[in-house]
Design a protein that fits this description.
By secondary structure, the protein is an all-alpha fold. The chain has a single domain, classed as Growth Hormone, Chain: A. Helix content is about 80%, strand content about 0%. It has 15 helices and no strands. Helix 14 packs antiparallel against helix 15. The longest helix has about 35 residues. The radius of gyration is 19 Å and the shape is globular.
């Protein structure tokens, strides 16, 4: 559900940019609101889930996202767009944090690797949302009409699934936030980089294909579709890969493949060739974050009801910083150079595994 909702926003970015009359730098500032909403909501969602149960938090989060998505299609200026993005980001962030708390508990109770499979369904939602919105917009549908259709899908899924969500409290007395420490801090730093890369694909992928590769804006959302589909396929097989080669080797291999993808996106001679880079980035990024959340369930530095929200918050700081950093770098240099910087950051994750071995 959150994957579908957030991906429905990706093809709307060029339309929102044009409607609000924003340049790259201003768009980067406005996009800060999406990550800011997530950062504010995640620690609060962890505390609420501990006291009220995960089900209530997840239902409230998806209802809020369903209200905010149509507002993104009609917000008239930078301020209105920023406010709608803040609410939308808060709702998606609260859902992400709470469902990861459940995922860690279910994986531990099962005694086997499940996290990549769980995250695959986020990617399935992302692929479906981006594909559906791109198809509707390419067929001439107005952005608001396309958003209303997406909300109808989300609400139907909530109605069908919510009775199966865990209602028990995670903990009886949990503070609203605890700063990550020890191994949790290192895990969160890796998640920061990976969310930064994924956020760039979400918020700047369509803009890059439009401006740097001269693709029709109505079809530019196909880049995120390719990224999401590749990530989905890689995550569906990710649990078997992680068990076969080990989590650290999976992280190193993924980081190297993602770097190759960013290089191809920049160097490809045309838009359709650049789509191969989106595929490689999706494959490379697919299983790194699931491995990190599994590690969060095994570490002993912090209780998981604090560790998961802390890691989620630090990771989503990448969503907050990523779009703005790409916008500022692109404004001062070029989008191509900004994507090279993203590739270098992902390459650093491969180096960081030397400290993750413990």
């Amino acid at each position: 559900m959150p994957g579908f909702a957030i991906a429905a926003w990706a093809p709307l970015v060029p339309f929102a940019k044009a409607r609000a009359g924003l340049d790259e730098a201003m768009l980067g500032i406005v996009l800060l609101c999406l990550g800011a909403g997530s950062l504010v909501a995640m620690p609060l969602a962890g505390a609420l889930a501990a006291r009220q149960g995960c089900r209530r938090v997840m239902v409230a989060a998806m209802l809020a996202a369903s209200l905010a998505l149509p507002a993104l299609a009609v917000a008239p200026g930078a301020v209105g767009l920023g406010l709608a993005l803040f609410v939308f980001g808060a709702a998606i962030g609260a859902m992400d944090c709470t469902m990861n708390l459940q995922a860690v508990a279910v994986e531990r109770e099962s005694g086997r690797a499940l996290m990549s499979g769980f995250h695959a369904f986020y990617s399935i939602g992302g692929f479906a949302g981006a594909a559906a919105m791109t198809a509707l917009l390419s067929a001439g549908a107005a952005p608001l009409s396309a958003c209303v259709a997406a909300v109808a899908v989300v609400l139907a899924l909530v109605a069908a699934a919510c009775r199966h969500w865990r209602a028990e409290e995670v903990d009886s007395d949990v503070p609203a936030f605890a700063w990550p420490r020890g191994s949790v801090l290192l895990i969160g730093a890796v998640c920061f980089v990976m969310f930064l890369a994924e956020g760039a694909m979400l918020d700047w992928g369509a803009v890059f294909l439009d401006q740097a590769k001269d693709m029709d804006p109505a079809r530019a959302g196909v880049g995120y579709v390719a990224f999401s589909l590749a990530m989905t396929v890689a995550r569906l097989s990710g649990d078997r890969v992680v068990q076969a080669i080990g989590p650290l080797r999976a992280v190193v291999a993924g980081a190297l493949v993602a770097f190759a993808g960013f290089a191809l996106i920049v160097l490809a001679p045309g838009a359709w060739a650049a789509l191969g880079g989106f595929v490689l980035v999706g494959i490379g990024c697919a299983n790194i974050v699931p491995v990190m959340f599994s590690a969060a369930g095994r570490q002993a530095a912090m209780p998981e009801s604090l560790a998961v929200p802390a890691i989620s918050t630090l990771g989503y700081a990448g969503v907050l910083a990523g779009p703005a950093l790409v916008g500022f770098v692109a404004h001062g240099t070029s989008l191509q150079f900004a994507f090279w910087c993203l590739g270098a950051a992902v390459l650093g994750v491969a180096v960081a595994t030397r400290w993750l071995r413990a």
